[in-house]
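ASSEMBLY PREDICTION REQUEST
Request ID: AP-0331
Submitted by: J.K., bench scientist
Number of chains: two
Total residues: 626
Priority: normal
Notes: Please return the full assembly, not individual chains.
Input sequences:
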Amino acid sequence: MALQRVPTRFCRTVCQTHPLHLSGQSQQLVTASAEPETPVKIERAIFRTPEQNPANHSQQDVGQYYTLPPDQLRSAFPHGLPRRFQQQMKTFNESCVMVRQPALEVMSHLKRADYRQPALRYLLYGITGSGKTMALCHAVHYCFSQGWLVLHIPDAHLWIKNCKELLPSSYKPARLDQPVLASQWLKNFGVTNKHFLSEIKTTKSYVWTKRESTEEGRPLGELVEKGLTRVKSSSDVMGALMRELRTQCGGPGGPRLAVAVDGVNALWGRTTLRKEDKSEVLAEELTVVHNLRKMLKNDWCGGAIIATLSQTGSLFTPRTAYLPHSLLGKEGFESLEPFIPVPVPPYDEKEFESCYQYYVERNWLQHPYGHTEEGKKELIFLCNRNPAIFERLCASL
Amino acid sequence: MAAVTATLLKPWTPRLFQVRWSRYNPYYLEPEVRKEVYNIPETDLTAEQRKEQELKAVRPIKAAPASLHSSGFSDPMISKFINMMMKGGNKILARSIMLQTLENIKRKQVEKYHKTPDAQKATIECNPYIIFNQALANCKPVIGLVSIQKGGKYYQVPTPLTDNRRRFLAMKWLITECRENKHRRTLMDEKLAQELLTAFSNEGSVIKKKNELHKMAEANRAFAHYRWW
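STATUS: Completed
Returned structure:
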C-alpha cells in the first residue's frame, strides 16, 4: 500500500514553485533561524503554541498549532472552513490550526496598513493542497478577533456552477439572480456580524417591489431580514448590503471591513450555467458575481481584501495551473491589479515535523510502521510535504 | 463391442479442470519483496537461506504482481480483501473503498477515544488494521459442512477447513452481507466500516452466520463418519 492512488488533482510533475516576488522574509530562512522552543513545559507539547490570540502570533510560533475557541468558531466560521478540516475537528474534538508564514505576512501587513488609503488586496497563491484556504481562515480569525466586519465567501466556485434556480433579475433585465444561494449567504453573514447589524444604518432607500421598500436610516439587520424573508430579492439585498458596507466602513468612525474570498478566480472564469435558450451564462451576468466584483475594486477605504486562488473547484482551467495569471486570465488579473501576491509553499521540515507529531499525539497516525524513521521518510517521499496529500495519506494509515 | 473400443480411443481429459491456474511453469520461483531479507549480511545466512540464494542464481523468477510492495505499510490480508471486493478488474475503485473504510473505522474510534474520560481510554482500539484483522478472525468458521452423497441422498457432513478456506469464507460473508443486506443508499465503505466494527465486538450478522454454521455442524455430528478424507 505504499503508492496509494493520490487524487489526480494533486499529481504534479514539477515540484518547485516559483514565488512571484522574492520578499525579504523568505520562507526558507525560517527553518534556519527558528530555534527549538526553550523551556518546554511538560503539559504542553512542542508543536502547540501558548499564544491563542492570533494578534500576538509571531515568527517564533511558525510551525506550531493554536486552538480556535469553540464559541468564536461558530460565529466566525458558520460556513468558512474546508470540509476535511471540519471532519478533522469533529474527530479530534478540537480545532487546531497551524501558524504559517503566509498568514503571518498577511496579518503583519494588516496591522501596519494605513486605512485612510484605498483597500489593499492580498492574493494567496500556491499549488493544490499547500494550505491557502487555511491561511485565509487564520487571517479571517485575526480580523474577527480584532472586531472587524468580516465578509467571508467560502468558495466563489460554488456560485458559478450547479445552480438549479436562476431567476431573471427584476433590477436589470440582462442579469440573473440566484435566490437560494444569496439567502444562505445572508444568513451566514448575519451570524458572523451579529453585533454590527444594529449599529450600521442604511444611507439610501431601496425599493424591492411595488409594495416593499426599505427607508433610509434603517438598521442593517432589517435589510438582512428582508433578504431572508423575501427570497426572490435576496440577490439584490446582497448588492445593497455590499454597497452600504463600502460607503460606510470608509468613514473615520466606522468599523474596518475585511473581504475574504476563496477561489477568487471563479469571478472571472467561465460558468457551466445555461440560460433557457441553452446559451452560456457569462460570469458578469450573475448579480452576485457582479456585486462581488465591485466589492473587490479598490475604490473604497477603511479595510482590506484577502483573496485566494483555487484550481480545485475551478472550471475549464488546466490541473497544473497555480499562478495568478494562468488562473485569473487577462481580465481578472487586470482588474485585481495592483495586489500583494503572497505565495503559500508546502510544509518545510519544521512544519512537517510539527504536523507529524500532532497526528501521532492525536492518535491519528496508527500504523506502527508510520512511527518508525523509515516509515516517516516514506511518508515524506509519498506526499512531498504537501499538507493536503499528507492528511489524506495518514487518514488510512 | 464398437462402444467399448470407442471409449478406449477417446482423448483423455482430466476429471477436474482448474478454473484459476497459473500459466507459469512450476520451474519459476516466487519473487521476494521484503527488504529485511536482502539486508542480512553474507555471514548471517542460515544453510537454507544460502541454498535458496544459490537456487535463485539459476532458476527464473516470476514477475511480481503490481499490488505487491516492499513498503512496510503493505498488509497481505488487506490486499486479499481488496482483490475479493474488486469487480470487473477495477482495482482502483476497490482499493479506494478499502482505504475509505479504514479511514471511517479510525474516525469513529478516534472520536470515541477523545470523548471518553482518561480512565477508559486504554480500552478503545483505534488502529483500523488491528480492528480489521481481529474482526476477520472473529468471523472465521472453525468447521465447515460438505455435501456428500450416500445411498441416493445428500447429507451435510461436518469437515475441517483449511486456513485459506476459512479466510476466504470470512471475507466472502463480509462482502456479500454488505452488498445485499444493507440499505440501498449507504456507500460501501460506510457499510463495511459498520460491519467490521460490529464483528470486532463479536456481534452482527456475519458472526451470527458463523455461529449458525457451527450449530448445524454440531447438529449433524452423526454423519461425520461419512467423510473418508
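REVIEWER COMMENTS: The domain at 75-226 of chain B is CATH 1.10.455.10 (Ribosomal Protein S7).
SIGN-OFF: pending second reviewer
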